[in-house]
Amino acid sequence: MTDSTFQFPSYYNREPFFTLQPVLNTQKKQLQMWQELILSYARFHKMYVMDIVECIKNDSVLFNNDKIKRRLSLETTKMIFEEIVDNGYGEWLDKDKNRVLVWWRKPEEWAAMLYKWVCDSGHTNSILTLWEIQKGEDTTNLEFHDIDTTTLMKALKVLEKQNKAQVFSGSDNNLGVKFFSI
């Protein structure tokens, strides 16, 4: 899929959207709109990790609108991602805050979706490898097919806390997970 097939909202083509607004209430709304746009874009492209510096440096269409000749600064982009992380839709992957894990679905949502599939498909009380969950034929048409390993592990940790799953290391250090019916 190309960026041209992603439908940007109309406000993406308005110049003020690319300039951090000075009025606090307006800025708060602007940051919320950027969060929604970034999460929608990441979901559409099944992106789990974003390197902010690379996105800015490579003129990512998400942060650089050629049509109106506007782009976000690195500082403003980091501020937006700080808001995303603070709202529970991401996690910093480095101390410099350049790479961020983007959760267009929170780990709890992935966990619920995964566990529903496990129950519906009869995989409770059985063992699956991470590969079967991420790449297996049974998940081809499901939203979590090709899920990032870090995101999947976060979801599985949620299920472990709920006593619905147990992650373990199998042969050749392959990770497996046993799902429990409760």
By CATH reckoning, the class of the largest domain would read: Mainly Alpha
Based on CA inertia axes, which overall geometry fits? elongated
Output the strand order for the largest sheet: 1-5-4
Tally of structural domains = 2
The number of helices is 6
Indicate the CATH topology of the largest domain: Arc Repressor Mutant, subunit A
Approximate strand percentage: 5-15%
The largest β sheet comes out as: 3 strands, antiparallel
Distance from N terminus to C terminus (CA atoms, Å) equals 40 Å
Q: Superfamily at the CATH H level of the largest domain?
A: "Winged helix" DNA-binding domain. Chain C. Domain 1
Architecture of the largest domain in CATH?
A: Orthogonal Bundle
The strand count comes to: 8
Topology of this structure?
Blueprint (H helix, E strand, L loop, with lengths): L23 H22 L3 E3 H6 L6 E2 L4 E2 L2 H13 L3 E3 L6 E4 L4 H14 L6 E3 H6 L13 H13 L3 E5 L5 E5 L3
Antiparallel strand pairs: 1-5, 2-3, 4-5, 6-8, 7-8
